[in-house]
Structure of Fungal lipase-type domain-containing protein:
Amino acid sequence: MLKFVGFLLILGLATADKCSDCLAQGKHWCVTVNACGFSPCVTTITKALNCPELPDKAHAYDDGFMRNKVFITHSAAYNMDPQKCFTSKMPTMKVSKTVNVNCDRYGPKAMCFGFTAYDTTQKVIALTFRGTEGGTQLTEEILDFFHGKKAFFDSGNVFEYFYDAFLFQWNGGLQQDLRNLKYKYPDYEVWVTGHSMGGAIASIAASYLVKTGLYTADKIKLVTLGQPRTGDYAFAAWHDATFPYSFRIVHHRDIAAHIPPMEGQDELFHHRTEVWYNNNMTIGQPYTLCAEADGLYCSARQLDYSAEDHVWYFGRNFVDWGAAGCP
């Protein structure tokens, strides 16, 4: 009799064999047993964006590519002459345009730095943004978390400070230069990168390129380090449905990936895909491709966070390393 009851229970749970189908029925997905509506459950999913999903093989994560290529573009943003880093570590990449503009609409002067570059050997165009610079800018960012968000076309909302910071740099010279580079190299893929605040700006920039029709999403590789939450659930949902190649790399206890804190049902939400290195990120260290977008998974399982981990990626303090020219 007990076996029969158990069979009926399993049969009932099997009516929704996918997490998304399960949530569409108004039930929760139990990660612990990979079943719909199972209770009691240690770990449940109630948001569709947290349904387990990984990038397809054609857009797989590659530690070597990140470590030896994309990481250089992140580091270069911390040098006012990014070419020094490229000359040292990736000499085929050539800087095309740098911008250093005041990106604070309301508060005291705070500068944002970004650049474009191109590589005729790798057939790549790079668009990269520096992270937060100084206490004044950090204070303005934090205050903006309480000011609300700005509509991003018809796809949710993003934080106003990040959006403004992108537009100031975009209109300060990056737009015209990127259009010129695309005219010269129409078939090149685009690496859009950034760390910290620069990661949030990079996310918005990649999205803007698609929304305005300058590039299609399949031409873009978006990679961020220590990216704070950038927009709401609707923005994250549009992002995930749009970009086949998008990775948010998080080092161990990096505090920035968890600010501002998630509030309300849909107010703040990370887009996919988090790659979590729960170690010192030196060569050969393992990483976790996080199947959920944003919840109590992967790096969010940490009980404490670290500011030091925010500047240490791939085994070095890359902010100082980049400032020194990537020696």
User: Anything to note?
Assistant: The two ends are 72 Å apart (CA to CA). Residues 75 and 318 are 6 Å apart (CA to CA).
